[in-house]
């Protein structure tokens, strides 16, 4: 526990915070999440409640006889969790304990119902992750009974056994619940872990304030920081807080994750700074269906045919100087790219000679999906690609013909390249082993919402 927290604190110290320029993210966990945790949590709770009992001094006999008591099993029949507004979570658990009293000459098998009540505060920890702590815990014990197929016991012995077991379990069960929660905190601490975006880039999430808790949900205000070569990607400062309206939520959804436009702007700025959006489009000289050679180009531009009577392969160097612009409107996400294309041909000395360069504007439709914990995207071209000549070493260029050529050799490689990058995706806020289940992605004015179930995989 100390090792994990120490590592988390070290990360916070080493990776600088960048104030209000960090993209905002919101995670809202609804009542459906508690229902899932209640069902999933029965097994670990049963295991935690299976504690060791001290020997019992049997005072029903003339000679005090230390007697061993074992918990055979614990069955949590009901586990119910509910939100406590402005505080945390209340737990109610109804369990049945089965004991074996190793009494001579014949052992006894006993059963006892137990109800556990606990209040857990949810707060912001020192390493900017959620922290859960037990603030109140109590146990209610039913009457102890001998199982039907066990040996009989005197009422006096049963009273003494019940008194002994209750005295021991009153403290041990609450301590076990507290220890279980401490293990949960170690798990929650993985929220601040770095997730790769690319070979030299990462994203890290952290809480920026105490959670908001109502009777219906808990909401976490989270900042995302993207790093390129260890340095944070910083956007112009925007002090407007990011919030997701309640109306986008549904009661049946476990988790609602709101992603501000700033997050997408940061991700695209990172890709642009890393050079990941640049690509080279090359043609094969012997290919019949690829017009990226001087012979095909010479049919459109006479000066190319004059300078290169022998066919040579042509290369399109696509470079993105301007940062891509994402626009989010209700049910509609678009991406605008403004790359430059330099058309090059390999000269006789293996150096590249520039023929001409184009300024390009491409509008793309953007669709989102989620796989496990990663938000992915795919694109398609919207309308016509806009081309203008930036420079030319081969005289005048007929842009109508050039538009047809560029559309043939440029659009598909660009889409393949972009979709491969966006298909890698970017990690959503997550902790280890917890995945998004059956997620749906909705686009609203200025932000994106992922509405999803949750699935914990051991």
From TrEMBL:
SUPFAM superfamilies membership: Bactericidal permeability-increasing protein, BPI (SSF55394)
Coiled coil: none
Family of the protein in this entry: Belongs to the BPI/LBP/Plunc superfamily. BPI/LBP family.
Residue ranges constituting the Lipid-binding serum glycoprotein C-terminal domain according to the UniProt record: 249-452
Record's protein name: BPI fold-containing family B member 2
Signal peptide: 1-21
SMART domains referenced in this protein's UniProt entry, alphabetically: BPI2 (SM00329)
One annotated GO molecular function: lipid binding
Entry keyword annotation includes Disulfide bond: no
Entry keywords, A to Z: Signal
Origin superkingdom: Eukaryota
Gene giving rise to this polypeptide: BPIFB2
């Amino acid at each position: 526990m100390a090792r994990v927290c120490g590592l988390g604190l070290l990360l916070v110290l080493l990776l600088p915070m960048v104030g209000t320029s960090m993209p905002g993210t919101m995670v809202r966990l609804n009542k459906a999440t508690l229902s899932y945790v209640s069902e999933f949590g029965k097994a670990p709770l049963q295991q935690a409640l299976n504690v060791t009992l001290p020997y019992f001094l049997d005072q029903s006999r003339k000679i005090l006889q230390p007697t061993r008591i074992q918990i055979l099993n614990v069955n949590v029949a009901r586990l119910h969790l509910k939100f406590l507004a402005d505080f945390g979570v209340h737990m109610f658990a109804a369990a049945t304990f089965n004991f074996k009293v190793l009494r001579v000459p014949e052992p006894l098998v006993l059963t006892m119902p137990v109800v556990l009540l606990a209040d857990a505060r949810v707060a912001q920890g020192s390493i900017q992750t959620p922290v859960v702590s037990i603030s109140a815990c109590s146990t209610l014990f039913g009457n102890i009974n001998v199982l039907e197929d066990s040996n009989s016991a005197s009422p006096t012995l049963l009273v003494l056994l019940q008194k002994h077991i209750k005295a021991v379990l009153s403290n041990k069960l609450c301590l076990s619940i507290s220890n279980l929660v401490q293990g949960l905190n170690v798990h929650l601490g993985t929220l601040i872990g770095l997730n790769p975006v690319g070979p030299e880039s990462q994203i890290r999430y952290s809480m920026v304030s105490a959670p908001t808790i109502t009777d219906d949900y808990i909401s976490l205000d989270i900042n995302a920081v993207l790093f390129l070569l260890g340095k944070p990607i910083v956007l112009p400062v925007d002090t407007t807080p990011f919030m997701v309206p309640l109306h986008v939520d549904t009661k049946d959804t476990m988790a609602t994750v709101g992603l501000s436009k700033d997050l997408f702007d940061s991700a695209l700025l990172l890709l642009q700074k890393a050079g990941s959006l640049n690509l080279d489009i090359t043609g094969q000289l012997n290919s019949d269906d690829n017009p990226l050679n001087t012979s095909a180009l010479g049919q459109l531009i006479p000066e190319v045919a004059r300078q290169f009577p022998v066919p040579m392969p042509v290369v399109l160097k696509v470079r993105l100087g301007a940062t891509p612009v994402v626009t989010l409107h209700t049910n509609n996400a678009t991406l605008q790219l403004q790359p430059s294309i330099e058309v090059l041909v390999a000269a006789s000395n293996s150096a590249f000679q520039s023929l001409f360069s184009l300024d390009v504007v491409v509008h793309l439709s953007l669709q989102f999906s989620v796989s496990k914990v990663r938000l992915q995207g795919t694109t398609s071209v919207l309308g016509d690609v806009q081309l203008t000549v930036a420079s030319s070493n081969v005289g005048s260029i007929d842009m109508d013909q050039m538009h047809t050529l560029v559309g043939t050799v440029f659009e598909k490689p660009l889409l393949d390249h972009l979709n491969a990058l966006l298909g890698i995706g970017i990690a959503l806020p997550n902790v280890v082993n917890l995945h998004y289940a059956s997620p749906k992605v909705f686009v609203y004015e200025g932000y994106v919402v992922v509405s999803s179930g949750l699935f914990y995989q051991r």
